[in-house]
Design a protein that fits this description.
- The complex is a heterodimer of chains A (about 375) and B (about 475).
- Helix content of chain A is about 15%, strand content about 30%.
- In chain A, a hairpin with a 3-residue loop joins strand 3 and strand 4.
- Chain A is α+β, with helices and mostly antiparallel strands.
- Chain A folds into 2 domains: about 210 residues, DNA Polymerase III, subunit A, domain 2 (DNA Polymerase III, Chain A, domain 2); about 140 residues, Proliferating Cell Nuclear Antigen (Box).
- Chain A has a 10-stranded antiparallel beta sheet. Chain A has a 5-stranded antiparallel beta sheet with strand order 5-1-7-8-9, with helices on one face.
- The N and C termini of chain A lie far apart (about 50 Å).
- By secondary structure, chain B is of the alpha+beta class.
- Chain B has 3 domains: about 150 residues, Proliferating Cell Nuclear Antigen, CATH 3.70.10; about 140 residues, Proliferating Cell Nuclear Antigen; about 120 residues, no CATH class.
- Chain B has 14 helices and 20 strands.
- In chain B, helix 1 runs antiparallel to helix 2.
- The chains are: A alpha+beta (about 375), B alpha+beta (about 475).
- Chains A and B meet through helix 5 and strand 14 of A and helix 2 and strand 9 of B.
- Chain B: Pfam families: Rad9.
- Chain B: One of its GO terms (cellular component) is checkpoint clamp complex.
- Chain B: InterPro entries: DNA_clamp_sf (IPR046938), Rad9/Ddc1 (IPR007268).
- Chain B: One of its GO terms (biological process) is DNA repair.
């Protein structure tokens, strides 16, 4: 790209993407959820951007990061030079910018101060930065309760134990690491400006971007859906963590819930355990097999829809790719269509979604089933 | 076999498995209609651990379902199996289990084939241990673990009880002592010297330490009052054993708030530890090694004749090969050997000693009676001693050629033994396992007597028999 002759033009053209956030942790968590293959395709739209990662032509991980998680988000359509005068393109649908980026590098850059560790708002611990020593502040902020000694302040910043009431309001005073991200357009690097706070050092990272190549498409047709489950992520997380590491195949078995008694004559059957289970997660390994049966209990399965008995197997290696996203999510939606295509959506709790009612980001995985298990 | 544990019993059960996993990898399950015992032996067979639970421990317990293949030849209904402790423990120790499990069902389903348990590698015919966890909200988790057939029993060699020393101590007290001896990476061996009113514990300093790592030598003296019961048969008695398994025992006893009952006889015989709970009976056996040059309880030598090859200094002859905590016995031979009268094994070992100790009425221990009552006699003392060379073989013996070398030197050192000769020839004596002054004193003692115990003769003959040649002296512990 001949930057020299474009340079005067670029001065006038605003960058394709300009986004900033005062705390990178949520953003980093979302990216980390799909960080199982280094090369990710990033598609930028007006409403946010989508990070897509695929593995083995079988597993597709997608992180939907909406614009509202950023403090500032401006997307300027990268209008190609030729149709610049013809403004007839549909601005809603086609007007996207896409590039590929080494995802691992991006996450490492965000974590350059060691402060982009898991935000884990679901874990209930607001102070996950405790491990890291923050940079010493210049002593200019006076909103901390008056410990003038910088040594003890540093300690108090690190542990957060002496911040008093602030610790009950999330990280109100702990601003975290701020980031400003710009992407000038195709061929330009993604530029990150990362600063821990106003007085601390700032880092500028330029990450090379690549032209986006077409990636695996696994469209999920809701009309062909045969199984749909919504459950708390902890249930699925516990189930997957209990599997023996030697297992290589994971089978989801679903059976339609028993027919609802129409006239009330039918009593609740005491031998419910003997019927075929509604949801069974099953795995076989070297040292034995594991089955986990879940009843149709609202406390366990918030939603259970199953049209016909299904049994599909997936490679544990692929399912375990979802664990990182699963761990930081609150709710999981699991859908399987009649071909065995599984769609796992993890709702990622946003630290500020509660307040402004913004849409929470989510990560979706789609995985093809193993062929030999097709029912 | 079916056993159901409720949430309160699951915790001690998991603790027991944790302790078992620190002893050895394999878990042997042995279930009779009244008790179930879980046992393991470490890889060097120097430590053995067994938990026995009575049926009252479980909320439900039964052995022998209609389709279960039972082992009738031992005269009772017995279900056995073997699996990796880790695989069972990883299920029960999972963090979600403690929170959510309300009931745990363990059941053993034996292979489908009839009585033929030799080939179990065919699909669908394996025995399985089924762990069914009933969690809150009606979630049921079923783990099926492959169960291997228990081909060999590892039974501890229980020493004769007539000269046993007894100690009882709480886990906290003994842990406070042992905290002084960090066992983080290495597995240190501790020397315990049980005196009249004091117990001396010190770290075992090995002269074989190649890099001089053990720069730190710790010695601790504890008053015997620290022990709830202190009954040492002959003072001073010195034994040495490794800490790793002992620590596992202490950790278990502490988690269960149960006292440890230690029993031991002489330095080469294993240390037995009993931890008894309400419905459980736990036995730990840790093999000990003799400390070279340690003071011995009084023992008189009655030498009557001399043979040239027995010119070994007496001190060498006194070092016994440590007795292994568990002997591998195959099931077939166990059936015969376990019936060996106890008195026979006792008399065998008595001849090996220079003077039989005065007859002491055998104390009765409820636990031992239980052991003997077990139909398959898994725990019945196997007369292990007669198979063990009691004396340090090979290295202290001189070959004819070596003796010629000694004579040729003309230095008047005919009474030199092989090790000394080797030292002399090699020029560096880093392999000395005890201090020289004491040995030379002992050698003079031997010279004056020029006699060797006839019982020793017998043992030496065994030592040098052809099949023992290959075994040589294999130290139980790598120092």
């Amino acid at each position: 790209m001949s930057q020299n002759e474009d340079a005067p033009e670029e001065v006038q053209l605003p960058p394709v993407l300009k986004a900033s956030v005062h705390d990178v942790r949520y953003f980093a968590t979302l990216l980390r959820g799909v960080n199982f293959v280094n090369r990710a395709t990033v598609t930028i739209t007006k409403t946010g951007f989508v990070v897509v990662v695929e593995e083995a032509r079988t597993l597709l991980g997608t992180a939907y990061i909406f614009a509202n998680i950023f403090d500032e988000y401006t997307y300027n359509s990268e209008t190609p030079p030729v149709p610049q005068d013809s403004q007839t393109l549909d601005p809603e649908e086609e007007d996207n910018a896409a590039f590929e980026i080494p995802l691992n590098t991006l996450i490492e850059c965000l974590n350059i101060f060691g402060t982009a560790g898991s935000s884990a708002p679901s874990a209930g611990s607001g102070n996950v930065t405790g491990k890291y020593k923050k940079w010493k502040k210049g002593g200019d902020d006076s909103d901390q309760e008056g410990d003038d000694d910088t040594g003890s302040r540093r300690q108090s910043n690190g542990t957060g134990s002496t911040r008093g009431i602030d610790s009950y309001f999330g990280n109100a005073s702990d601003k975290g690491t701020g980031m400003r991200m710009t992407y000038a357009g195709s061929g330009y690097p993604l530029t990150l400006l990362i600063a821990e706070d106003a007085a601390g050092p700032t880092t500028t990272c330029e990450i090379t971007t690549y032209e986006a190549e077409p990636h695996l498409e696994l469209p999920f047709d809701p009309s062909r859906m045969v199984l749909k489950i919504i459950l708390k992520s902890s249930w699925l997380r516990d189930a997957l963590s209990e599997l023996d590491p030697s297992c290589d195949k994971l089978t989801f078995i679903g059976n339609p819930p028993p027919a609802v008694p129409v006239n009330g004559r039918q009593r609740p059957q005491p031998r419910a355990a003997n019927r075929s289970p509604m949801l069974r997660i099953q795995a076989a390994g070297t040292f034995g097999s594991t089955e986990m049966d879940y009843p149709n209990d609202r406390d366990v399965l918030e939603t259970f829809e199953c049209t016909r008995p299904v049994s599909f197997s997936y490679r544990v290696g692929h399912i375990s790719r979802t664990l990182r996203a699963l761990q930081s999510s609150t709710k999981t939606s699991l859908r399987i269509d009649d071909d065995g295509l599984m769609s796992l959506q993890f709702l990622m709790p946003s630290p500020k979604a509660k307040t402004d009612g913004a849409m929470e980001a989510f990560i979706e995985f789609r995985c093809l089933s193993l062929d030999d298990e097709l029912v | 076999m079916q056993a159901t544990l409720d949430a309160s019993a699951l915790k001690p059960f998991t603790r027991a498995l944790t302790c078992l996993s620190r002893y050895g990898e394999d878990l042997a399950i042995y279930a009779t209609p009244e008790t179930i015992s879980l046992s393991t032996t470490n890889s060097s067979k120097s430590a053995y651990c067994r938990f026995k639970y009575s049926r009252q421990f479980f909320s439900k317990y039964s052995v022998g379902s209609p389709d279960a293949c039972t082992n009738e030849e031992e005269g009772g209904l017995v279900v056995t199996g073997q699996l990796l402790t880790k695989s069972l423990l990883s299920i029960l120790r999972h963090k979600t289990v403690e929170k959510s499990v309300e009931r745990c069902e363990l059941s053993i389903v034996e292979g489908a084939q009839d009585k033929d348990r030799s080939d179990e590698d065919e699909d669908g015919l394996e025995s399985k241990l089924i762990v069914r966890l009933h969690c809150k909200h009606g979630v049921v988790k079923t783990h099926r673990l492959l169960l291997l057939s228990l081909t060999s029993f590892l039974a501890p060699g229980v020493p004769d009880a007539n000269n046993e020393s007894h100690l009882t101590v709480g886990p906290r007290a003994i842990r406070d002592m042992l905290e002084q001896f960090p066992a983080a990476r290495s597995d240190p061996q501790l020397i315990w010297n049980f005196g009249e009113s004091e117990v001396e514990v010190k770290s075992f300093e090995s002269s074989l330490d190649p890099k001089g790592k053990n720069q730190l030598s710790t010695e601790l003296t504890i008053s015997a009052d620290e022990f709830d019961l202190y009954d040492v048969y002959a003072t001073p008695t010195t034994i040495a054993f490794h800490l790793r398994e002992f620590n596992a025992t202490i950790a278990f006893a502490e988690s269960m708030s149960l006292a440890l009952e230690l029993r031991f006889t002489d330095p080469a015989a294993p240390l037995l530890i009993d931890v008894e709970g309400d419905n459980s009976d736990t036995l730990f056996v840790i093999s000990t090694s003799q400390v070279p040059g340690a003071p011995e309880p009084s023992q008189v030598s009655t030498n009557s004749k001399k043979r040239e090859r027995e010119e070994t200094p007496r001190d060498f002859a006194r070092i016994k090969k440590p007795m292994k905590a568990a002997q591998r016995t195959d099931a077939a031979s166990l059936a015969h050997e376990s019936r060996t009268p106890r008195s026979q094994s006792a008399s065998t070992s008595r001849t090996a000693e220079s003077m039989p100790p005065p007859p002491v009425p055998r104390r009765s221990y409820p636990s031992q009676h239980q052991l003997e009552d077990m139909p398959d006699a898994q725990m019945t003392p196997v007369p292990s001693r007669k198979r063990e060379p009691l004396f340090l073989p090979m290295s202290s013996q001189l070959s004819a050629a070596d003796e010629q070398i000694i004579r040729d030197t003309g230095l008047g050192i005919e009474d030199m033994n092989a090790e000394e000769l080797e030292m002399m020839l090699e020029g560096d004596g880093e392999e000395v396992a005890f201090d020289m002054s004491q040995r030379s004193a002992k050698r003079e003692e031997t010279d004056t007597r020029q006699m060797v115990d006839p019982a020793d003769d017998m043992e030496f003959a065994a030592t040098q028999s052809s099949d023992d040649q290959s075994k040589g002296f294999q130290p139980l512990f790598e120092d």
